[in-house]
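Before any further analysis, we paired sequence with C-alpha cells, yielding the entry below:
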Amino acid sequence: MTSDTTHTMFGTHSTTGDVLAGIDLTGKTAVVTGGYSGLGLATTLALAQAGARVIVPARRPDAARQALAGAAGVEVDQLDLADLASVRAFAERFLRSHPALDILVASAGIMACPETRVGPGWEAQFAINHLGHYALANLLWPALTASGTARVVSVASGRNPGWRIRWDDVQSERGYDKWEAYAQSKFANVLFARHLDLLGRTHRVRAFSVNPGWILTPLQRHLAVEEMVAAGWIDADGTPAPGLFKTVEQGAATQVWAATSPHLDANGGDYCVDCRITDGSPTDSSEAARLWALSADLTGLDLIDRA
C-alpha cells in the first residue's frame, strides 16, 4: 500500500461529474452492486455517462429496471448477496457473456437493520455487506484478471478507531447490537480491500475502500424518524441538519474517483475519504489476512488466494 494525499484536486464537495471530467470509459465494463439506489445509482449513471458498459446486479430486478429506465449502456441482472447460490449463478452468467471486468464497485449494503439471519444463519449485515461481496469478487476473478488494469472499490463508511471484528462472535449469536454489527461489516469492507489488493496487485487488480461521507439515501430505511432526530441528523419536520449531508453525486464521487482515477495506478489497499487516500492502521494487514481466511472458511471460496 502506498499512502499519499497529494494526488487530487478534488475534495469534500466534488461530484461524480467533476472526477470523471476528461475520462473516457468507452470499452470498459463495470459491475455496480446496489447500482439502482442511492450512491450506487449515482455511480452507475456516472460511469455509463462516461462511456462504460455497466451491469447492475439486483435483488429486485424490476425495481432496478424502473430506476435505470432510459440509462444508455446499463444492463440489469439478478443477484441476492445474501444467497451464495445466487452470487454464483450471477457470476457464471457474467463470465459467459463478458470476457473481462474492469471495475467492480461493491456499493450494495444494509444498515442498522433488526436482527436478521440469512444463508446458514449468518448475521445479515456481515453477510450482505461483506461475505456476499467477498464471494462475488472471488467468482468474478477470471474476468478481473483478464482486464489487465482492474479496480475493485469496496464502499465502507466513516471509520472509527473503535471498529473491530468480533472474532469470538462474528455472527452476533451471543447478543445483537445493530450499530456494532454495522460497524463490524464496514470494517470488514476496509480489511477486504486491503487484502484483496495484496493478492491482486501482481495480476494488475487494485482495490480500495472508501468512506462516502454523510448522505441521506434509502440506506437509512431501517431507522425511525425519532432516532434520526435524536442523533441530530434531521429536525422534527424531516429537514436535514445544515451542512451535514452531501448530495448523492458528492457522496458517490470518492468511489467513482477510486474506480477510475489514472493517478491511482500505483496505489492500492488504501482507505479513501473525500477523493483522497489516507493512512491505514498498522493492525489492518494482519487483521485483513485473518478476515480473508475466515471468509474463505465460511463461504468455501478462496479462488484469489490460490490463483
About this structure: The chain has eleven helices and ten strands. The chain has one domain: 16-220+248-298.
